Amino acid sequence: MNKHVSFLRNSGVLQGVNILPSETFVFFAMISITIWFIMPQFCPVQVHAQLGTTPNIKHIVVGRCFTYTTVVNPNSRYDCEKIWRHFEEAVVKQSSCNVTVEHYNRMFNVMPQIWPCNRFLFWSKTRALMHSYAGVFRHFWTLEDTLVGYMFNDLIWCGQEADSDFDFNSCPEWSTCRNHPVFSLWRQASQNFAEMACGNITVLLNGSIVNAFNRKSMFGSVELDSLNPQRVEYVNIKVVTNLEGPQIESCSKGSIVDLIQILQSRGFHWTCTDRDPTLMILQCIQDPKHSFCQTCANTLLQQKSLTSN
Ligand SMILES: *[C@@H]1O[C@H](CO)[C@@H](O)[C@H](O)[C@H]1NC(C)=O
Ligand SMILES: *[C@@H]1O[C@H](CO)[C@@H](O)[C@H](O)[C@H]1NC(C)=O
Ligand SMILES: *[C@@H]1O[C@H](CO)[C@@H](O)[C@H](O)[C@H]1NC(C)=O
Question: What is the 3-state secondary structure (H, E, C) of the chain?
Answer without folding.
Answer: CCHHHHHHHHCCCCCHHHHCCHHHHHHHHHHHHHHHHHCCCCCHHHHCCCCCCCCCHHHHHHHHHHHHHHHHCCCCCCCHHHHHHHHHHHHCCCCCCECCHHHHHHHHHCCCCCCCCCCEEEEECCHHHHHHHHHHCCCCECHHHCHHHHHHCCCCCCECCCCCCECCCCCCCHHHCCECHHHHHHHHHHHHHHHHCCEEEEEEEECCCCCCCCCCCHHHHHHHHHCCCCCEEEEEEEEECCCCCCCCCECCECHHHHHHHHHHHCCCEEEEECCCHHHHHHHHHHCCCCHHHHCHHHHHCCCCEEECC
